[in-house]
Structure formats: C-alpha cells, structure tokens
Amino acid sequence: MQDRAGSVVRLDRCPKAFIRDDAPEAEAQIGDFRWLQRYGVAPREGGRLAQDAAFIDAVDVFESELHREARFEAAQQAKRRPNRGAPG
C-alpha cells in the first residue's frame, strides 16, 4: 500500500481494523462536538485546557470541515445566481 506521497506503507493488520477500532472514539467526539455547538457544554468540566487533547484536535478538524463545506456551498450558490452585470 502507498501513502499520498507515494511511499510504501507496511500494515500489520487489515486497514479496515483501524476504522473499526477508532470508530467508537470518533463517534463519541462527534457527539461531544454537537453538545459543544448546541449547548456550549464541553465534555469535561473546565475550560479548553481541561479538555482531552484528542478532543481539541477533533474540534479543530470538525470546525475546519464545516467552514470548508460552507465555502463550497456559497460557491455553488454563486454559480447558480444570474450574472446581473452581463449583457444578455
């Protein structure tokens, strides 16, 4: 198997095992992120520094993906709008 850079990656188990093993933690982080967005409640008591480092990293990824999706949707809507300055 090769990674994105073209380097050979040796795996000691089925690649699907990584997904299966990480799924419960990812699902919990997604649920915690939803609570954080809706209610402003973090998984642990305290501020940002009291949170698990993996959760903080996940929040950064989730927010980045949400912003990327919003930019994509805005670009799609802009393409659908008629160009009012164009002759026609």
Give structural notes.
This protein is mainly α and 88 residues long. The chain has one domain. The chain has 2 helices and no strands. It has helices at 15-39, 53-80. Helix 1 (15-39) packs across helix 2. The longest helix has 28 residues, at 53-80. The radius of gyration is 20 Å and the shape is flat. The mean pLDDT is 85.
Structural class, from secondary structure content? mainly alpha
Number of domains: 1
Instruction: Report on the biggest sheet.
Output: none
Q: What's the β-strand tally?
A: 0
Low-confidence stretches: none
Average pLDDT confidence is 85
Backbone CA Rg: 20 Å
Kindly, what is the distance between the CA atoms of the first and last residues, rounded to a whole number of angstroms?
A: 53 Å
Spell out the helices and strands N to C: HH
Overall morphology:
flat
> So how many helices?
2
